[in-house]
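Duplicate of #3305? Posting structure anyway:
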């Protein structure tokens, strides 16, 4: 916001000096406070605050602080202390600067900026007021832990009949529940509403990344929080293994204070993990407990896949020597898995987990497009042609091919797109990977040949692989006449240096390689470990988690019989609203039960060679198989 040019050559140095300013750094210290609840005393640490008012957490509403583990750690510590202190004091809400009703009982109000926690702030004991709770007091806890934050918000709204009005939430409530402040403010209502929606952090992250400022943002936070405030990885923070405290109305039977501590004390692995991950341990432990409780037999909906021909294992997988398969017994269990997937991703320790194909599921394609080698100057250029192309040639070509078989969706076909971009360790070059999911179209799975299943030598007429083959053949036929497709194919081949697949004349970025066939085939048998990655999970040792790019609705008024020169036809592309992270996981989970039958298709539109190309990968490896 300032004009740094006045500093001339010293501008960069002055910018860096700003973060070392002594007045700024004094707020980066750490203190701990004893909190006694139900006969147990806990030492809980947090960063210094001015008054420990919740308004000091507004930055978490607007910027992606929680994506930096050190900042997330500091945020959770503050909300842990805030919730425990309020619970111990029997407050009907959380503290924050707010207006309160005037002492004379009239309609006038006054603003109080001294609501805080004595001992953890700059306020002295006699200055810190706790006689009112702010209507917006739970917004920061809603961001850190939505469930506990919602419990505190409910507690405040129910503390007095006047807290909920036809125009929204009132400003504050007396701690003894005797009165409310007759005032409606942006501070109380908008901050809470924004927190319920998850804040603007994820949206702002996209703009920071677009403007090439995300790395700078993260480095500053790591510099401030990671070294000065939270310490290094081996530094354990007081009370860090405690969960967040809900209000008293939740009841002790539903919540056992200190349970997380005793669980960690009995399991050294969890203690080490909590320190190494530098994040809030309860979420890490919740993920570990889910996998401990849901280990299953082969054929279960989820598996960790294989790493060097062995079932992949990590900190969250049971130490039972199992085969790495897991099942959710109910929709509630499945939701708990999704929440753990999201939590671990946000904490910087994404899980490795595949969803296995049931007999029927939503159509999906796995696109693998390679860029330059790891030392090439333009190794990521391939993204511009694969997905960020203004005309969306590749996407329109794929969707138009699908319309050949499902023409009833020309009026509108939803496509959810996920990406996993980064360096491919196996090929030592950049890889842009996209998963396209069509939730409107249900297909059946192709299954690999297996002597054990008795299917060896049979060609299963599964629609999924037939649709994929049709798309590949449609693109291959059109590329000789369509200028748009020809230019796209050339650019994609050029981006990977015209590399060919080992032992063949096929280019690494040819259509048959881009639309990867292998992940589509279901693998039967006890050693099965194939499937489609869940959103926000990673591959073993890859460091490129699968992230949602967005949802789009494609439509076209043009019939499918346009000339090859004009193919693919022009599409109307409408971006659909974003989803919360858990719903993104649900949308990308192909193992979830699909209701209804296969989507009717127009088999007459199928490319004549699509079925003749249907041959399972096991047959490729062993000619004697067929």
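Output from current build:
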């Amino acid at each position: 916001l300032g004009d740094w040019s006045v500093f001339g050559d010293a501008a960069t140095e002055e910018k860096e000096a700003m973060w070392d300013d002594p007045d700024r750094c004094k707020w980066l210290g750490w203190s701990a406070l004893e909190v006694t609840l139900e006969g147990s005393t806990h030492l809980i640490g947090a960063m210094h605050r001015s008054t420990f008012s919740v308004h000091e957490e507004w930055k978490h509403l607007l910027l992606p602080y929680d994506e930096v583990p050190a900042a997330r750690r500091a945020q959770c510590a503050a909300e842990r202390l805030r919730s425990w202190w309020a619970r111990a004091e029997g407050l009907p809400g959380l503290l924050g600067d707010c207006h309160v009703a005037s002492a004379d009982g009239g309609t006038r109000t006054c603003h109080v900026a001294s609501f805080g926690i004595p001992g953890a702030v700059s306020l002295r004991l006699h200055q810190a007021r706790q006689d009112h709770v702010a209507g917006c007091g739970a917004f920061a806890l809603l961001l850190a832990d939505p469930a506990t934050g919602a419990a505190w918000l409910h507690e405040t709204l129910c503390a007095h009949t006047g807290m909920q009005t036809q125009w929204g939430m009132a400003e504050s409530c007396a701690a003894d529940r005797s009165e409310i402040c007759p005032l409606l403010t942006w501070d109380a209502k908008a901050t809470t509403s924004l927190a319920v929606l998850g804040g603007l952090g994820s949206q702002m992250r996209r703009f920071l990344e677009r403007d090439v400022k995300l790395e700078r943002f993260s480095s500053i936070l790591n510099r401030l929080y990671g070294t000065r405030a939270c310490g290094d990885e081996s530094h354990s923070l007081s009370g860090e293994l405690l969960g967040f405290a809900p209000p008293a109305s939740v009841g002790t039977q539903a919540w056992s204070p200190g349970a997380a501590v005793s669980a960690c004390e009995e399991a050294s692995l969890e203690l080490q993990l909590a320190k190494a991950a530098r994040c809030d341990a309860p979420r890490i432990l919740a993920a570990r407990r889910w996998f401990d409780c849901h280990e299953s037999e082969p054929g279960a909906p989820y598996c960790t896949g294989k790493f060097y021909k062995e079932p992949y294992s990590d900190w969250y997988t049971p130490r039972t020597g199992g085969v790495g398969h897991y099942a959710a017994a109910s929709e509630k269990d499945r939701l708990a898995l999704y929440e753990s997937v999201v939590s671990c991703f946000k904490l910087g320790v994404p899980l490795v987990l595949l969803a296995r194909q049931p007999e029927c599921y939503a159509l999906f394609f796995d696109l693998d497009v390679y860029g330059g080698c790891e030392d090439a100057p333009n190794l990521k250029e391939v993204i511009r042609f694969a997905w960020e192309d203004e005309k969306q040639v590749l996407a329109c070509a794929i969707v138009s091919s699908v319309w050949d078989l499902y023409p009833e969706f020309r009026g509108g076909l939803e496509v959810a797109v996920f990406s996993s971009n980064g360096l491919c360790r196996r090929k030592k070059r950049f890889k842009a990977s996209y998963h396209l999911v069509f939730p409107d179209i249900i297909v059946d799975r192709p299954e690999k040949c297996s002597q054990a299943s008795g299917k060896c030598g049979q060609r299963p007429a599964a629609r999924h692989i037939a649709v994929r083959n049709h798309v590949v053949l449609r693109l291959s036929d059109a590329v000789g006449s369509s200028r748009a497709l020809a230019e796209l194919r050339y650019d994609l081949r050029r981006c990977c240096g015209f590399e060919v697949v080992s032992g063949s004349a096929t280019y690494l970025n040819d259509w048959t390689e881009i639309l990867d066939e292998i992940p589509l085939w279901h693998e039967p048998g006890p050693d099965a470990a194939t499937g489609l990655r869940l959103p926000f999970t990673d591959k073993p040792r890859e460091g490129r988690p699968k992230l949602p790019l967005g949802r789009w609705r494609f439509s076209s008024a043009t019939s499918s019989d346009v000339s090859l020169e004009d193919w693919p036809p022009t599409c109307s592309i409408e971006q659909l609203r974003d989803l919360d992270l858990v719903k993104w996981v649900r949308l990308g989970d192909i193992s979830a039960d699909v209701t209804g039958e296969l989507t009717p298709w127009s088999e007459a539109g199928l490319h004549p060679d699509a079925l003749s190309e249907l041959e399972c990968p096991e047959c490729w490896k062993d000619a004697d198989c067929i």
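Confirmed duplicate; merging threads. Residues 381 and 447 are 36 Å apart (CA to CA). The radius of gyration is 28 Å.
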